[in-house]
Amino acid sequence: MMLIEKKSGELVPFRRYKVQLILEQLGVVGRDQQQILTAVENITSSAQITTREIDAVVYAQLQELAPKAAERYATIQKLEGEVWRQALNLENKLSAFSTQDAAVLHENANKDSRVFNTQRDMTAGMVGKSAGLRLLPETVAKAHIRGDLHWHDLDYTPLSPMTNCCLVDFDYMLAHGYQLGNAQVESPKSIQTATAQMAQIIANVASSQYGGTSANRVDQVLAPYAAMNYQKHLVDANQWVPAEQRVQYAQKQTRKDIYDAMQGLEYEINTLSSAQGQTPFVTLGFGLGTSWLEREIQIAILKIRIKGIGPDHRTAIFPKLVYTLKRGLNMQPTEPNYDIKRLAIECSAKRMYPDVLNYDKIVEITGSFKAPMGCRSFLQAWRDANGEEINSGRMNLGVVTVNLPRIAIQAHGNQDLFWEIFVDRLALAKKALKMKLARTKEAMPENAPVLYQNGAFGHKLQDTDAVDQLFAKGRATISLGYIGLYEVGTLFYGPNWEHNATAHAFTVEIVRRMHAACQAWEAEDGYHYSLYSTPAESLTDKFCRLDKARYGVIPDVTDKDYYTNSFHYDVRKHPNPFEKILFEEAYPHYASGGFIHYCEYPNLRQNPAALEAVWDFAYDHIGYLGTNTPIDKCYECGFEGDFKPTARGFRCPECGNHNPKTCDVVKRTCGYLGNPQQRPMIHGRHAEIAARQKNMTTQEVQDGYEINLWDTES
């Protein structure tokens, strides 16, 4: 294998196709292209050379054969150099923020860039991005800027060795006590105190990492503290209540305590603000408990969400609720928790949450059952040295996402070339992930005491302990992400390939090979590399925008101005839920490190049986299912349903109201819900995307046309 030396001094394999792609971009084809390629191959066949020497040969040949192309080549080289310099320029980044650049301000749909603490975090993030690019291997940094891949959370890492998302070990922390700030906190003696402590822990964890914060089996974790309430009420009852009424009295009082505690937790989470300037991205997993206390906690969570938050009873955005379905527990009317399943259906129809986890399929796909970390990241089965299965207290170390549509565009319909480029991009992603891993391992326990020293990660490390002991041997995950399988299928098989078995098998093979690469990397160093179906919020725009600028308008690919998230069905089409589930079910078996499916529905409040039919069907096909249904509400005319997005914001279809103070607009953005009406300009982006899904022009939207917005993830 011939190696060439890049400008950074790094040695990389010579790839003929890279020169060919440059020539095709310049419009140099046929005999001229072949002559230039031969000239390049001649100088690479005898000795190790540099990219500068290859550039010189290409430029000289172009001057001789295609002078205008030579001029364009020189211009492109100059522009790429300027893009690189600007990416490293901190002043340029701060200027984009200070001038209210929409792409900068609204990169995250749940960050309100109007408030001071968010502005402070975003300013620090500009510094982090500029410095982070300098810390990355130059090949990785330039690939990120070009859009070959995406280094997620550049504003936090690699400048800081922070972790991504986690399953907090609340069970351990509540049972053993912990220290936060100046306070040594002892184990709670009631469910009210336990939930108050959970909120404190969530705030601290969210400020010590940059990803989602999840609680696994929260009904089972909190039940022992509810039992303490029950025992206290029994003591009181023995003194004041007739004997035959004591148990009933204690249960009634405990039931109220549980409801009040869970309501308090919901309010506290929605009023928290982390150091990142946003409400912590919190997920509560529940549904497996069978004791009366565990059942009451489940019921309280759902009833509180159905009721809504505040005097207007608005839909709470956080925490994300994830309810578990399990055959024999809550699937059929004869099963003990079926009544709670019915309540979960009502809640999902009215508030979109809970999403559902199908117990048996999650075990099949990931090896064990657990809630997701954040919106969709899943840990794989793991046992400690004693053979005990461990889920809570584990974490993800970060994500790097590959731009799959770009590989397909560059392959020009040649699948052999696609796989050749694919292998090189995975090698580049591997280098990036190794960098993420190495940097995260450099953290000291004292950098994030709540994580490393007070039990959130399941251990209490000393100052001098290596944090790597919590990451190594597969305990943590580090994720290879991907985007745009729909566009890849379109480039090779046309825009309606969903019903083409050969096309579907090809896209599944892409995911399988990425999974195989992760397995090979793990075999090399013992860390668990997982394949992750990226929730590409702003990345759907970024990758497509970069590819459109470089390769032009490609029907059903770049002309949409967005790429489709991960393995999802084309959002412009409207398959029924059963078709969508069957189409998508194969992918998560390889992308087991992160996945979620959505189904789209009309207003379901009067037809819960329809939602239950989909949940029941999904149980044996997919592991994780979200409900997208219109739940907007106008407080001026009373309309409930789907608000219409326009360039001026979402508006009530009955009375035209678009005042965020008198309407509640909730849309799903990737794995989480959001209030686009509360974020100036974000709703404009939503409206623009929705317009494209309806094949309408942006001008038509600005003129006031009404369009339907479903899942904004794409």
TrEMBL record:
One Gene Ontology term of the molecular function aspect: ATP binding
InterPro entries: ATP-cone_dom, Form_AcTrfase_GR_CS, Gly_radical, NrdD
A Pfam short name: NRDD
Keyword Nucleotide-binding: yes
GO biological process: 2'-deoxyribonucleotide biosynthetic process; DNA replication
Lineage: superkingdom: Bacteria
Gene Ontology, cellular component aspect: anaerobic ribonucleoside-triphosphate reductase complex
Keyword Membrane: no
CDD domains for this protein: RNR_III
Keyword field: ATP-binding, Nucleotide-binding, Organic radical
UniProt-recorded name of the protein: Ribonucleoside-triphosphate reductase class III catalytic subunit
